[in-house]
Amino acid sequence: MNNASTWQLLSAIMRRDLAVALRRRSDIINPLLFVVIVVTLFPLAVGPGPDILGRIATGVIWVAALLSALLGSERLFRDDFLDGNLEQLVLLPAPLPVLALGKISVHWLLSGLPLVILAPLCALLLKLPIDAWGILMLTLLIGTPMLSAMTAVGAALTVSLGRGGALLSLLLLPLFIPLLIFAAAAVESTLVGTSAYGHVLLLAGLMLLTLTLAPLAVAAAIRVSVN
């Protein structure tokens, strides 16, 4: 199959997924509301002191982002599995990893990109120094595609299970730990006046590795699930 036909199929699948997701707006809004609620309530628990909040702001935002990625993640492939579309995806005359990357991209557009846009509001609520806002948004811009990719891998592995939400969380949370460490370290470096360049490069390397391997893992998991 030539590249033009593959691109046409990929575009059609992405447009379909976007249309389906926009009809279920609660699936898009609920994770964002979760992040806003966590960020809003956290100062009430630890106190409004800007020194304390500013130091823990990055961790709070990233933990909220990680947990929000798990909300509804088991439905990433579940509906397609139940109505037979997942089997048709395997039978399409196009590389399945490429199609999986398209579904990951749609998931990021609907869940990761809004988090990046929402980051300045979260930083303001948690009194993160404005000098660190840029690096926070950069880490989210680099890290959220990894969240979508790893979530897709977990969702594909558990799609044939009746209730795979708990198992999905157990599979994904250990994978999120390096991302959380490097993202928090990058912002912390900015706060203490040192360069965050090394941490950002590590994040970028992890993102490239994840986006290279995750579609292959998703494709393999989907083939196992539909057979």
Quick rundown:
The protein has 227 residues and is mainly alpha-helical. It has helices at residues 3-23, 25-46, 50-70, 75-82, 85-91, 96-125, 133-158, 165-191, 197-226.
The radius of gyration over CA amounts to: 18 Å
Shape: elongated
Structural class: mainly alpha
Q: List low-confidence stretches.
A: none
How many individual helices?
Answer: 9
Proportion of residues in extended strands: under 5%
Overall number of domains:
1
Strand segment tally: 0
Q: In whole angstroms, how far apart are the ends?
A: 23 Å
pLDDT averaged over residues: 84
Secondary structure layout plus pairing:
Blueprint: H1 3-23, H2 25-46, H3 50-70, H4 75-82, H5 85-91, H6 96-125, H7 133-158, H8 165-191, H9 197-226
Helix pairs in contact: 1-6, 2-3, 2-6, 3-6, 3-7, 3-8, 4-7, 6-7, 6-9, 7-8, 7-9, 8-9
Organism: Pseudidiomarina donghaiensis
Keywords: Cell inner membrane, Cell membrane, Cytochrome c-type biogenesis, Membrane, Transmembrane, Transmembrane helix, Transport
Protein name: Heme exporter protein B
Characterization of this structure:
One of its GO terms (molecular function) is heme transmembrane transporter activity. This protein has one domain (3-226). It has nine helices and no strands. It has helices spanning 3-23, 25-46, 50-70, 75-82, 85-91, 96-125, 133-158, 165-191, 197-226. The model has no long low-confidence stretch (mean pLDDT 84).
